[in-house]
Amino acid sequence: MSLPFVDLKSQYTRLKADIDRRIQAVLDHGGYVLGPEVTELEKKLSAFAGCADVVSCASGTDALLMALMLENIGRGDAVFLPSFTFTATAEVVLLLGATPVFVDVDPFTFNIDFAHLAHLIAETERAGKVRPRIIMPVDLFGLPVDYTALNALAEKHGLKVIADAAQSFGGALGNKKVGNLAPITATSFYPAKPLGCYGDGGAIFIQDPSKGEVLRSIRVHGQGAQRYDVVRIGVNGRLDTIQAAVLLAKLEVFDDELRAREHLASRYDAQLPKSVTTPRRVAGAQSAWAQYSILCSRRDELQSKLKAQGVPTAIYYPLPMHLQPAYIEHGKGKGSLPVSERLSKEILALPMHPYLSDENFEKVCASVEAAFAA
Ligand SMILES: *Cc1c(COP(=O)(O)O)cnc(C)c1O
What we know:
Elements: H1 8-29, H2 36-49, E1 53-57, H3 60-70, E2 77-82, H4 87-95, E3 99-103, H5 114-127, E4 131-135, H6 147-156, E5 160-164, E6 172-173, E7 176-177, E8 184-188, E9 202-206, H7 211-219, H8 241-251, H9 254-271, E10 285-286, E11 292-295, H10 299-308, H11 338-346, E12 347-350, H12 358-371
Parallel strand pairs: 2-3, 2-4, 4-5, 5-8
Antiparallel strand pairs: 1-9, 6-7, 6-10, 8-9, 11-12
Helix pairs in contact: 1-8, 2-8, 3-4, 3-7, 10-12
This protein binds pyridoxal-5'-phosphate.
């Protein structure tokens, strides 16, 4: 029996009739670009998240880029972000000519370290070379950051929060969902994310409805009231109608899938051996469980033993951003962010998706257990 890391085939088998019907409808009406499914999806996403408006876009990376463009971020502006993240979080800052300030992460939640963040904001303010403007936290592996504390810190320093929720759509803090935890939230619908389409896709969730119009203009080359008016610099950031159709079908079962992810995480918590560290639970926070990542001091050995047993794993992320060749000049080098650097050596993601069979779950747990048995 195969044991996939992410199982999109089983999901398609479950949803085939609805997905096929919705894609066929797009082929029949022919509105491939910004067709009616795009508007329908945006309405359903904002109802799901409980925010004022949602603007869909071509990828999670575009969602981050367009959010920064909305806030007019560019040269001379500092953006604070965790180093332990996917490259896109740092990339968009540099694309706009702004300055990334890499922050270390908490060793237990893997999310941005508030004490270190406050320290770096003060340091950047004192140095006076670039102007602190944005905090871009990342809800790593699906766990929302403590936005109550983060929004307060941002307000204290006059900064804006743009949440990188590429991995956490579906998560929540108390009864508030991701998409309505920060003024601006960016997510991704890349196939392997908790809610994924069949290609690239993303969305921006906003609490201030007046920002929707500007974002929709940025999404189409800075278009004004007339089609060939160019009133600002924009991008081609549209979500394909076919991808919106796929997402509409998947949104119907998303809550059910989130429950299955939570159930699987709880079973891992209970059954994995003490030789590995399971992810920290945060009271009141609901993860979307994009990944279930454990820590193990003999990570590479564990990974190769699991591979030999036919258990796929993945490493997110093998190198923190401040040590990446493309970004190293913007950081403070090796040893400067010790938690991020240690996590990159100890982290290991196990198979996590709503369709993992009992048999495969038992196999993953038994293989981890056997890896360090005497
Ligand atoms: C996936 C991801 C992105 C980028 O999303 P794409 O849709 O692949 O462009 C950005 N940030 C984080 C943390 C991600 O995991």
